Amino acid sequence: MAENVTNVLMVGVGGQGIILASDILAEAAMLAGLDVKKSEVHGMSQRGGPVFSHVRFGPEVHSPVIGRGEADVIYALERMELLRWAPWARPGATAIYADTDMLPTGIAAYPADIDDEIASRFGRVVRFDMRELRSQINPKAKNTVLLGAVSMLTDLPLDAYAQAITELVPPGTAEANLKGFEVGRRVAASALGVRLESETS
């Protein structure tokens, strides 16, 4: 992470909640007292097109855009979008992704070895098997589930994430989203081989 700036690139397709997830991450960083810059594109979001958001935070951030080869983490709610954006990852970067297939606009089919291809391009991988997690999470909370994994790779306080989630998710969904966040932390802790610290609730 260059100059104490954390670069998180968040990608997916329209309707998956990428923009909300990036808003939560940016708000959590601001609540932690950091400088935050964010850039997003979602013009095709209503037609299944790609949606992406660059989130950068640290003591001082000059640009909202993550350059090629600079992302510390790529968070993806769609596998082909993760591969599309893989060149933006720095060497040894972490991929956090849901194994959801929504066939982005312009893609005819998925490679048979897509998960192996993803693993070959990143230093560490946290893969979410959404079928396996179906009984543990609200399917509409997938974006905050993956944010739980992001929290394992940043120094932001857990209460900052909890406050941002509570403030920004749709009314009546905070509990489901906070639960999803904790499920994401547990999955990431197992995948990364790290100890899970205190919970948000």
From TrEMBL:
Domain Pyruvate/ketoisovalerate oxidoreductase catalytic positions: 14-185
Taxonomic lineage: Bacteria, Bacillati, Actinomycetota, Actinomycetes, Propionibacteriales
Protein name: Indolepyruvate oxidoreductase subunit beta
GO molecular function: oxidoreductase activity, acting on the aldehyde or oxo group of donors
InterPro entries per the UniProt record, alphabetical: IorB_Oxidoreductase, Pyrv/ketoisovalerate_OxRed_cat, Pyrv_flavodox_OxRed_cen
Oxidoreductase keyword on record: yes
Alphabetized PANTHER family for the sequence: INDOLEPYRUVATE OXIDOREDUCTASE SUBUNIT IORB
Keywords, ordered alphabetically: Oxidoreductase, Pyruvate
Alphabetical list of Gene3D superfamilies matching this protein: Pyruvate-ferredoxin oxidoreductase, PFOR, domain III
